[in-house]
Amino acid sequence: MNQSFIINQLAEDRENYFNAVAPPIIQTSNFAYPTVDEFIAAITNEKDQHIYTRGNNPTVNMLCKKMAALEGAEDCLMLGSGSAAITDAVVSQVNAGDHIVSVKDPYSWATHLMTKILPRFDVQATFVDGTRTENFENACTDKTKLIYLESPNSWTFELQDLEAIANFAKQKGITTIVDNSYCTALCQRPIDLGIDLVIYSATKYYNGHSDVVAGAICGSEDKITKIFHNEFMTFGNILAPQNAWLMLRSLRTLPIRLKQSSETTLKVIEFLENSAKVESIWYPFTDNNPQIDLARKQMKMPMGMFTIALKTRDVRSIKKFCETLKYFLIAVSWGGHESLIMPKCAFVGENDPQVSMIRFYIGLEEADVLIDDLKQSLEQV
Questions:
Q1: Residue 369 Cα distances to 70, 214, 264, 276, 374, angstroms
Q2: Does domain 254-378 fall into CATH 3.90.1150.10?
Q3: How many other CB atoms sit within 10 Å of the CB of residue 250?
Q4: Where are the beta strands (DSSP E) in 70-190?
Q5: pLDDT for 3
Q6: Cβ-contact 265, 157 below 8 angstroms
Q7: Which of 37, 305, 352, 360 has the fewest CB neighbours in a 10 Å radius?
Q8: DSSP structural state of residue 202
Q9: Beta-ladder partners of 238
Q10: Counting Cβ atoms within 10 Å, is residue 181 exposed (0-12), middle (13-18) or buried (19+)?
Q11: Judging by DSSP bridges, how do beta strands 305-310 and 357-361 pair with one another?
């Protein structure tokens, strides 16, 4: 299946919906059956039938099929947030007494899950430098059931060698999960590299309009079915039909949005590399990135987020730079139409060595507009 067919045709079933070009929103909590026998048959196979929207809904299922196909996965679950996807995926793979090896400094709520919540149930985690595959191998014990990855990391953009780690994990019978939110399947397909489960904050690029919070888990039919019948149905982290419909809308423009953001990002980074006010830049595709060969191997295109450090530790100057930008909003998240910044000084003390770091996301504005904005704001530093 080609990408265009998946985005625009797969699972649309227009003949069932008056040949409407846009899919319908099946905005219902419940589904009725004309006979008791049909009701019984449906209940015994809830993964593939429509009983109650907490489990299945036609609009949501249409999105699941497209997401799975884009990923090269057999199946997909859509959830109410990226945090829900992380929680359901991780919890589904561990029991009391088990051990997780995780890349260090993953997304904050993944860290919270593995350091605050799971230890209450006797599940322990070890965090390692993910730039060296042997660090994962050395950290695994006979109790290790899961390796958790995030490639690249969403602040300093270190990568892990997904194929090498997946090969090692399969030899040991260890499940692998990767948070692929930075890349999307259009940039990086971890399942092709042997990863078992791929998770997303679909709030980001997949939705892309800053109006939906969503998550996704992609993987084999066996693993996804087990998660459906256990964690997914129990925790109730569903995606509402209205939000699924908005995401179906968003998928139509995903390739052109990623292309615009990628091309603009490269131009903005080129400008910043030549600025005397910028000390460092973290981005997978900069020439001085020691992992650039791995980035080119695993990732099909540059993406729209990077971090810089200004040549100042004065917090007032850093704040002034951020606050005088006209086209970059100060906010969390990324992947929408708007360009964003997230200053590290909002999270660390004034004497912290990372205080001058600022994470950038490049939206859909013209490159010249963003560069002119950066010029005038850098003059304040």
A1: 33, 30, 10, 20, 9
A2: yes
A3: 22
A4: 75-79, 99-103, 124-128, 144-150, 175-179
A5: 95
A6: no
A7: 37
A8: T
A9: 79
A10: buried
A11: antiparallel
Q: Give pLDDT < 70 ranges for the chain.
A: none
Q: In which order are the strands placed within the sheet that holds 357-361?
A: 278-282, 305-310, 357-361, 339-343, 328-330
- Residue 94's alpha-carbon distances to 97, 192, 220, 334, 375, in angstroms, are 8, 24, 17, 30, 50
List b or e across 35-64, with b for residues whose CB sees 16 or more CB atoms inside 10 angstroms.
eeeeeeebeeebeebbbebebbbbbbbbbb
Q: Which CATH class for the 3-251 domain?
A: alpha beta
CA dihedral over 52, 59, 187, 307, signed as positive or negative: negative
Question: Look-up: residue for tokens 């595959």?
Answer: 133
Question: Which pLDDT belongs to residue 1?
Answer: 85
CA 6, distance to chain mean position in Å, is 19
SS3 255: helix
For residues 212 and 80, what is the distance between their CA atoms, to the nearest angstrom? Answer: 9
Q: What residues does each domain of the chain span?
A: 3-251, 254-378
Cβ neighbors of 205 (< 8 A, separation 6 or more) are 181, 184, 254, 257, 258, 334, 335
The token pair at 182 is 């930075």
C-alpha angle 80/81/82, rounded to 5°? 145
Written as six digits, the tokens of 12 are 């649309």
Tokens of 337: 């139409």
Q: What would the pLDDT profile of 82-111 be if each residue is shown by its tens digit? A: 999 999 999 999 999 999 999 999 999 999
